[in-house]
Amino acid sequence: MSVEDTKPVELSLYKAHEKIYPREVKGRFQLKRKLAVWLLLGLFYVLPWITWGGEQAILFDLPQRRFHIFGITLWPQDFIFLALMLIIAAFSLFFFTALAGRLWCGYACPQTVWTEVFIWLEQWAEGNRNKRMKLDKGPWTREKIRRKFSKQFLWITFALWTGFTFVGFFTPIKELAMEIWQWTLGPWEMFWLLFYSFATYGNAGFLREQVCLYMCPYARFQSAMFDKETLIISYDEQRGEPRMRGKKRREVENPGDCIDCTMCVQVCPTGIDIRDGLQYECIACAACIDACDQVMEKSGMPKGLIKYTTENALVGKPTQILRPRTIIYFIILMTLVASFGVALVNRSAIDMNVIHDRNSFYRIVDANTIENVYTLKVMNKGKDTAKYKVHASGLDGLAVVLGLNETEIEAQPGQLVTIPIKIKADKSIANKKIHTIEVTVNKINSEDNDSAAEKVKYFGYDK
Question: Quick one: which of 92, 69, 77, 70 has its CA closest to 336?
């Protein structure tokens, strides 16, 4: 053995990134993906411009600490609704993943949606897959500069419009547009507009599949929600192997249906070969299904060599899509949605809290009357200024005195009013140590009969 043979060999643990050039393909699944892209982007770009009930349809007004969502105004005290929305989103993800794999990734994930648009713009500016590959490998010519500049111009313009729309969900978008037109945009609006534009440009224009492969945690834990009954995109190995092309197919007695055209690889946005089996890189976009079906049709063979199926179906076992896991997820999801809807419909525009005075349980006013002192906090969760009346029940003859003998409480939208109140009762009625009474706040002249109530302890005179 020579000295050269004993020299250590340097190995790189990191693979250099290779740019992926996904081929454009048409088919039933790609039509659904395009419809999903148009629907989701349409909602994103149009909703901020819609007026609903005198307000922007969706506006997360952080300075005023209120969210306007289709005529409903939510405040920080309504955090429970945000929590329910997040829980519903989580169980939706669990349900659809257990049912049909990574539907979210392939059809609705923002990374997928915006990447699809950036690829369309790239194809429009630079041409199809072969032209783009040839353009990148070729020298810098006037034509290459023109096409590259056109692509970058489209990408940057679309990214800036996306950043502007994103900020428009937090700052009234019409005011934001006017501020940009007049060059009076505030520093925070400018920062988030540029930040989100840059994030869109970088993620959808350059990182693309790397976000799915290395940055997204969902790809790592999705297998925990899979089982052998989950619908996944799979290659029928028993039917397709041995794969071969051209003259070799005529030389073998029973060749597989796969002609090894690699179209399934060329159309894949993450660059994987679905014929190698289920892989975490697969985002279930179904582009390989459409491409393979077209090849099978041209070759005179039945479609479905690559298809949505289950592991059990691939080995000839019966498949049960509706199973305990999916049924339980669905029941929980529907229960959460119903609870959210009921809670939202029955949501009161008044939030209140009553705190008993800690310095004394009760006061003796005169020979026949005692009083308890409380701190009443009332918040107006409506969109207009409101006035309220306060009542107490639970004992006969209860009388409520507000602050400095006021008769009503007035609160601006989102205002929290704190006021001391005295509740008086006759000694002969409040003759036990502790009574339970109910304090009610009613909105004056309210068509919806808005009110809120809270039960509190009332200390009586038992001597």
Answer: 92
- Strand 72-74, strand 66-69: pairing: antiparallel
Q: How far apart are CA 431 and CA 448, in angstroms?
A: 37
| Cα–Cα distance, 2 to 176 (Å, whole number) | 74
pTM: 0.83
Longest dimension (CA), the chain: 115
| Residue 287 host element (H or E) | helix 287-299
Nearest to 273 by CA among 297, 230, 243, 229: 243
Model confidence band, residue 235 (pLDDT cutoffs 50, 70, 90): very high
CA-to-CA distance for 169 and 410, rounded, in angstroms?
30
Instruction: Pick one of 3.40.630.70, 2.60.200.30, 2.60.40.10, 2.60.200.40 as the CATH number of 350-459.
Output: 2.60.40.10
Instruction: State pLDDT tens for residues 19-65.
Output: 899 999 999 999 999 999 999 999 999 999 999 888 899 999 888 88
Domain ranges of the chain: 18-347, 350-459
Among 177, 35, 195, 200, residue whose Cα is nearest residue 121:
200
- For 344-361, the pLDDT digits (tens) are 888 888 889 999 988 888
Q: Could you identify the residue written with the tokens 């009553």?
A: 354
Structure tokens, 436: 């339970």
Share of the chain above pLDDT 70, in %: 95
* Residue 406: DSSP 8-state: B
Q: What is the mean pLDDT of residues 272-288?
A: 91
Which DSSP category does 182 fall into? T
